[in-house]
Amino acid sequence: MAAPTVTALTKTLRIGNRTSLGSLFSAADADSDPIIWLNLAADNMSRIDLTGYAERSLTDRLGALNGVANVRVGGGMRQAMRVWLNTEALAARGLTPDDVDAALRSQNIELPAGQIESFERDYTMRVARGYRTAAEFGRLPVGRAGDARLTRLEDVARVEVGAEDDRRIFRGNGINQIGLGIARQSNANALEVA
What does pTM read for this prediction? Predict the structure, then answer.
């Protein structure tokens, strides 16, 4: 049997002028495979939406159960903004894919806007970026054409919301699904966890 791997998540809590460190430990075998897989399917949700729901709502709840070391999402699809460049449109405006890459990197960032401090808590403030939908990303300026006209991403590319990686699949009974693999802690009884 492999020695258990210990994972520690440390949180810092500020109480008055004192700082308190609290830790949450989880022990699992380094090579532990899930002991049970739960299949999720929904007629009214895409696999991208179903993956988001599982990651936001289910993995933490299942992971908090006694004896559970971690929960893996199998066959999931994460949402991503997909940009399909039109090289002819870029060339006609004197732009390159590197110009688009530089514009995306410089304008699609979320920076801290400051901090609010109190005796009990500290808050980091962030400025919400303006690009959340495909249409908003399409309006992102990527450069100026030779005649000084502003070129936007939608002028030189097709922008769409899609899957980060669409080559994954998890099927059960002929239906596309996602799976939640539950791995037990090294000292937990597999029957009790299942």
Answer: 0.57
